[in-house]
Amino acid sequence: MAQPKPNKVFAPWDDPDAKPIIQFKNVTKRFGDFTAIDNLTLDIYPQEFFALLGPSGCGKTTLMRMLGGFETPTEGTILLDGVDIGPVPPNERPVNMMFQSYALFPHLSVWDNIAFGLKRSNMPKDQIGERVERMLKLTQLGKFAKRKPHQISGGQRQRVALARSLAKAPKLLLLDEPLGALDKKLRNETQFELMDIQETTGTTFVIVTHDQEEAMTVASRVAVMVDGNLAQVATPDQIYEAPSSTYVADFIGDVNIIEGVVDLPDAEVPDGAVSIRWSPTEAPIIAMMDTALPTASACHFAIRPEKVSISTEKPEAKNVMSGKILDIAYLGNISTYHVEVAPGLIIKAQATNVRRLSRRNLTWDDHVYLSWTDTAGVVLTE
Amino acid sequence: MKLRRSFLIAVPYTWLLIFFLVPFGIVLKISFSDIALAIPPYTPTLKDGFWQMLSGLDLENYAFIGAGAVFALFAVVVISIAMFQIVYPRVRRALIPDARYGVFDSAAAALTTLAVALVNVALIVAVLGLLFPALKAFVDIPDFLYFAAYLSSLKIAIISTFLTLLIGYPIAYAMARAAEHWRPTLLMLVILPFWTSFLIRVYAWIGILSTEGYLNQFLLGVGIIGEPLAILNTPIAVYIGIVYTYLPFMVLPIYAALDKMDDSLVEAAEDLGCTALSAFWLVTAPLSKPGVIAGCFLVFIPTLGEFVIPSLLGGSNTVMIGKVLWEEFFNNRDWPVASAVAVILLLILIIPIVLFQRNQQEADQ
Ligand SMILES: Nc1ncnc2c1ncn2[C@@H]1O[C@H](COP(=O)(O)OP(=O)(O)OP(=O)(O)O)[C@@H](O)[C@H]1O
Ligand SMILES: [Mg+2]
Fold it and tell me: What pLDDT is stored for residue A1 in this prediction?
């Protein structure tokens, strides 16, 4: 995860005076009677690295295409720098898009593909050459400059598409799954390269991705979309630590979700906490919460596996459960234990593998204790 | 397994080859014979014995129709094209050192190359003419009719191919841009004319274009013209007929090329700063080029030898080689000369057919 720099915090979305570069105002997009984007309102600020995350078909590409000018909103307006861009044709928008299908020109060489946009601008010829060479170097495509798109690999094509959209250094850059076809190493490199470009050029990025880790790495804010709407828009750490709904919690990373009802307040529960009864026989879960919930209302308790500790002896903690290990997933650096704490309720706990495999003492069917503090999880009502 | 497959391929192709080579051999043989008042109307025949027949063959008919001149022209064209292909890449490399070139640079390179190639060919012709004075007799044209007919066919084929392209491209473009569920219907409408006989459709045009035809009646009725237009029996009628008949052959390959094209390419071009028009010239047009070339050849090749349309719609003053062939064969009963005309026509057609094949191979890659 990107750590926010301690000295100056980039958070224009918290600043009431900040002017957004893009404003979606109650935008709805329908294809026939199918609603792809449903009354969506969103502000994106200059120099943001904004990531759109969501399941396939939730409307991410549609949102991008409306920014690029290839779809018009059925209802609502989109403002760029405070100006309605509805009537502005794509070629006059200071926006470049990297298409999900790459859309490379098959009859042009890699070099000419990258130079295409520059040639349409009034940049002098020798500067075009320099710029293209820089883009080729950036995307490590120097060797392939003379090849046609069908003569290079899928990952290389993706890099050409990226280079082509970066070449014009637009005000707003739309990247539709820019790194999907790259291997992990190249993807990491390109991610940092993107963040570098973003820092040096000050371009605003909107990036669609299926890879939540990528969204967490590069983004200043992440929007989780579901069925044409925004489930949550927040910084990566907020999305991860304080999801607004079970949907978001489940979509981002691994999570345990326990259903329950709010218990009567009693002496054992400290102030600002809530106790959740999830089973008639077991002890309730104690969790800190900012807002009070009415007694007996239904809620969900969500906790990340890495915040659950596992041990063979009963520990001293606010929340303790006991159960039997059903399954162990060994991932190298960590292991995930699937523990059945009640019939049908399986809780995942993660532990770092500080010892080698042969010396670890937990194994299948062991009776273990799970524990966590009262601030480790969140209570969700949606 | 491999044997079975080659057998499977060999059977139909042997069949095709036999039915091309045998008639061609017969025509070739007749073209070397002399006209005679007999049945069949030429001599010598196999009845004279094989060796006797062979010794009776000669090139007289070819000399008569000016095949030497045609052949010389053919050679000049082939040499020019070869020269162009050899010189052009070099000129372009010399003029344009790196990948940064525009349309005008390429055009300049092409024009320079063309000039160089033509001068070279002219020099070769002049030198050959000086070295071998006998060549003059070879290219001599005793009866200009045939040579003129070849040229006129060439002219009509080129112009009507161009007209067909002019009309066919927008149709194909509109089809490819039409809504998905309309396309099968539009495609069927283009193919629909094939459901009736070609001959009947050409006859229908006589009814439309003649002095008392529907077109003139309509125009007179509306009052646009005071006197009926004479369209039938003029070259215009021939162009109308050819464009009408061969339009599907132009539309279908262009449509196939445009249909294959990804819509997001045009969007990408616009995203990068193109207007709709420049996006068309820079992306759509180059990508539909293989379809355009295929369509042009599919129209040009059959039009060159076309016989039915000029003889029904063109009247006596449209000269096309197909018509000359017919008249030579049936009206004059001069089978040997007719055969010679046919053989030369086939040789001329080899150029566009070979070029067409090359285009298809390139498009496949
Ligand atoms: N031109 C169109 N006509 C009809 N429906 C469309 C059209 N374009 C998109 N849709 C529908 O709108 C919804 C959103 O599509 P969109 O392409 O935005 O999804 P996405 O979030 O980008 O998905 P993915 O992650 O798979 O790329 C989909 O259900 C899709 O079927
Ligand atoms: Mg998409």
Answer: 45
Contact A5, A11 (CB under 8 A): no
Angle between helices B335-364 and B285-304 (to 10 degrees): 170
Residue A293 pLDDT class (50, 70, 90 cuts): confident
Tokens of A271: 């102030």
Any ligand 1 atom below 6 A from CB of A7: no
Q: How far is B173 from chain A (nearest CA, A)?
A: 19
Q: What is the pLDDT of residues A237-283, one digit of tens each?
A: 999 988 989 999 988 888 999 988 888 776 667 777 888 888 888 88
Distance from CA of A271 to the nearest CA of B (A): 57
Which residue owns the Cα nearest ligand 1 atom 18?
A: A59
Cα A234 to Cα A13: distance, rounded to the nearest angstrom: 9
C-alpha distances in Å from residue B83, one per residue of B87, B93, B110: 6, 16, 12
* B284-to-A30, A89, A121, A339, B292 alpha-carbon distances in Å: 29, 19, 20, 60, 12
Query: Are residues B190 and B248 in contact, defined by beta-carbon separation less than 8 angstroms?
Result: yes
Annotated domain spans of chain B = 67-140, 144-365
A112:B99 CB<8 A: yes
Q: How far does residue A76's CA lie from ligand 2's centre (Å)?
A: 22
Position B52 scores a pLDDT of 80
What is B144-365's CATH number?
Answer: 1.10.3720.10
Distance CA A275, CA A271 (A): 11
Ion ligand 2 neighbours, Cβ < 5 Å: A 61, 100
Contact A117, A123 (CB under 8 A): no
Domains of chain A are 12-94+170-248 (3.40.50.300), 254-380 (2.40.50.100)
- Sequence-separated (6 or more) residues with CB below 8 Å from residue B33: B42, B43, B44, B45, B56, B57, B335, B336
Nearest to B279 by CA among A42, A26, A38, A103: A103
- Please report where in the chains the tokens 């949907």 appear, as a residue: A247
Residue of the nearest CA to atom 9 in ligand 1? A62
Q: How does DSSP assign A44-61, residue by residue?
A: E-TT-EEEEE--TTSSHH
Q: What's phi and psi for B73, nearest 5 deg?
A: -60, -45
ipTM score over 0.85, yes or no: no
Q: What distance in Å separates the CA atoms of residue B44 and residue B47, rounded to the nearest whole number?
A: 8
pTM: 0.79
